[in-house]
Write a structure and sequence with these properties.
alpha+beta, Pantoate--beta-alanine Ligase, Chain: A,domain 2, 4-stranded antiparallel beta sheet
Length: 127
């Protein structure tokens, strides 16, 4: 009898059941998918941040050029190309009147194709 009870207890602790292995593999798969999604989100955020930095440089350059003219810009919209970081961007300057005729509002909208990336605004006065 002793040998029979020893063989049962030792054979029960020898390994894992198929169910236990499948549950463990399922948990590992879920953890890997969650890690992959987090990595993809970080990559997308880094790309978006890079795009925003390039768009901001284009918008600030366009607004600085308007300020350097030392006069009131003409009303309406103008579009110029801006190449930053190997990307072709477009800056649309929209000049609108303000209640004070000595000032104009200038909006710089930066686009890549049809996608709008950023808009910066300023007020330019007559010098």
């Amino acid at each position: 009898m002793r040998s029979l009870s020893r063989s049962r207890s030792s054979s029960g602790a020898a390994g894992f059941t198929l169910i236990e292995v499948m549950v463990a593999l399922g948990m590992v798969a879920i953890a890997l998918v969650a890690g992959l999604k987090a990595t993809a989100a970080l990559t997308d955020n880094a790309r978006r941040q890079g795009d925003m930095i390039l768009a901001q440089a284009c918008a600030e350059n366009a607004l600085a050029a308007v300020r350097l003219t030392k006069g009131l810009p003409g009303l309406g919209e103008t579009s110029t190309a801006c190449r930053q970081g190997g990307q072709d961007l477009t800056v649309v300057l929209a000049v609108a009147p303000t209640p004070n005729p000595n000032f104009r509002r200038v909006d710089a909208r930066v686009r890549r194709g049809t996608e709008s990336l950023m808009q910066l605004s300023t007020v330019v006065g007559q010098y």
